[in-house]
Amino acid sequence: QVQLVESGGGLVQAGGSLRLSCAASGRTFSSYAMGWFRQARGKEREFVAAISQSGVTIRYADFVKGRFTVSRVNAKNTVYLQMNSLKPEDTAVYYCAARFGVSRDPADFGSWGQGTQVTVSS
Description:
By secondary structure, the protein is mainly β.
């Protein structure tokens, strides 16, 4: 399995931006589709964005369309989530995950990072 480490979270005011990174170990990163998920306190983990191995296929949750952008650099074993126009309701722990095909269902993913906290103040 691939090992994943997220970074880039923090405290930001509403309307601000953050860029999350997810670094993967191993030489097979380009074999994995990647997903971003988030979990707010007391809520279930939810899909945010996903990107295919080549980056050609991208999916977003409706609530982030136009605000968040997912991308990847396979040469750096890294996937990114650029988050703009942040809202207080975006506050959550953000996780990246890997699997062999694009999916919106967290149950389909077997490899997860430890998560990074994003807090958006009003």
